[in-house]
Request: fold
Amino acid sequence: MHGEQSNEMQIHKPVLLSEVVGWLRPSEGGTFVDCTVGLGGHAASLLEASESTRLIGLDCDRDAIEIARERLSRFEGRAALVHASFSELDLVLERLGVGAARGVLADLGVSSLQLDRRERGFSFLEDAPLDMRMDAAGEETAAMLVNSLSENELADLIFEYGEERGSRKVARAIVRERDREPIATTVRLAEIVVRALKVRGRWRIHPATRTFQALRIAVNGELDALERLIPKAIDVLEVGGRLAIISFHSLEDRIVKRSFLRESGRCICEGPVRVPPADSAPGNRTICERCGASRRVTVLTRKPVRPSEAESNANPRARSALLRVCEKR
Reply:
């Protein structure tokens, strides 16, 4: 097992590493929270920056926590790792007696550990059970969704979470094939999608990519969890502390961008702004009661930070990464 872990640690490349360290400033010391500690790549660099830096790492994947614990053991008790979803951030810090954090990081990408382990069912490159649970203790798998949702429900899910224009064709094909035999494996689902979309020639992106993304997001409730994370992360930051989020597709980045704007005092409603009454409590920084816009942070990245060409070439998984950072006022 240790040999397998060592190999996994060697091939794992945290994305936008120097950028994350630069924006979060761990050399100044303090408590930092890595909400998606994964295999510990970002966490190790944050801890290396200063002996006065402490790190709390969360992950919903027990296997990742164990690997990260081994990797970070050299930091002599400065890292506390917890098996938990990042939507439980506030509860975890309260349980650990942490009052405020200097920085919070969330890397929303699927880790190398999850992608490269065939049995986890995230990839269609090898045949495996159609699982896709980030937390193996979760009850709902991708196979359950594929074989139980109605055609309309499947089409809506694939369109909304995968932004797949051919979602109706894919859903129709899935229902037709599952009536013959339940769809249980990654390769079978990928083949169904390819046939449904009738994509010819060489592919730059595999035709099943968007469908698999949609199912993974649905199985793990990723977008809802992200919506809950951002205000909680800002709550736990000390004044001047920073929140950095790395997203990998437009759905995630849109949530991060809109949430940061709202938390910086920009109303994101359509129609007139609903301003609080003049006799609101002194110091009330609420701008709009409808969307909750309030001046809690300053957005530091006007546009998302992207990987350099060198990093994208060295690590293809980094190509779609987008980093946004805000600072608590």
The chain has two domains: 2-113+222-328, 138-220. The two ends are 45 Å apart (CA to CA).
